[in-house]
Amino acid sequence: MATTKTTSSNKKSTAAKSTAAKSSTSKTGTAAKSAATKTSASKTTSSRGVIKAKSTAAEGLKELFIDSLKDIYWAEKALTKALPKMAKNATNENLIAGIESHLTETEEQISRLEQAFEMAGEKAVAKKCEAMDGLIKEGQDIMESTEVGPVRDAGIIAASQKIEHYEIATYGTIIAFAKTLGMNDVADLLHITLEEEKAADLTLTEAAYNTINFDAAEADDSEME
């Protein structure tokens, strides 16, 4: 009887080991398949050109909103250095006055952004705006590529309007984010800035069509004579 019990026990032990081995193999196989699936998905994502997010990437609209505020905050501060250079290189009195007036507005807009940060419960921090940095550099290049006078004035207007259009688009988007997040007070505050940017763009358009562009065109005629 002892031999029978021992044999039976051995069989049970062997069966248990076999079951454990199968379970382990099954888990290993499942893990391998899962890893293979993730690798395949990663390759598919990469092949589709999907950009991998940074570790600091925004995961919600509030984060994207704050990130956008930081972006335009940097942009406005950069403009307080760029606008005086444009004014010094302009020759048309109306254009100079317009740039200097907008410089004052820009300083006020910076204060508004700081208020917006405070209202959103965030610290005012600037994050480099690559778009504005590029537009300012392009404006510098335009001034270097034109002679002082109406031609450079026309170039300054062109560069300035590109900047205004970027700001109009940016503030419009930020205001939409604020409204969606229920921050209507922030939206109302930044709407003041949006209207100022639209007015500045209109002023530049009028300056261009009233005199500056035509004066620049006369420079072409004098060169042909």
Helical amount: over 70%
How large is the share of residues in beta strands?
Answer: under 5%
Largest sheet: none
In the CATH scheme, the class would be Mainly Alpha
Number of domains: 1
Estimated radius of gyration: 32 Å
CATH topology: Ferritin
Overall mean pLDDT: 85
| Name given to the CATH architecture | Up-down Bundle
- Judged by helices, strands and strand pairing, the structural class is mainly alpha
Shape field: elongated
Number of strand elements: 0
Number of helices: 6
Features:
disordered N terminus, 225 residues, mainly alpha, Ferritin
Short description:
This protein is mainly α. 84% of the residues lie in helices and 0% in strands.
Describe this structure as you would to a colleague.
Helix content is 84%, strand content 0%. It has 225 residues and is mainly alpha-helical. It has a single domain (61-224), classed as Ferritin.
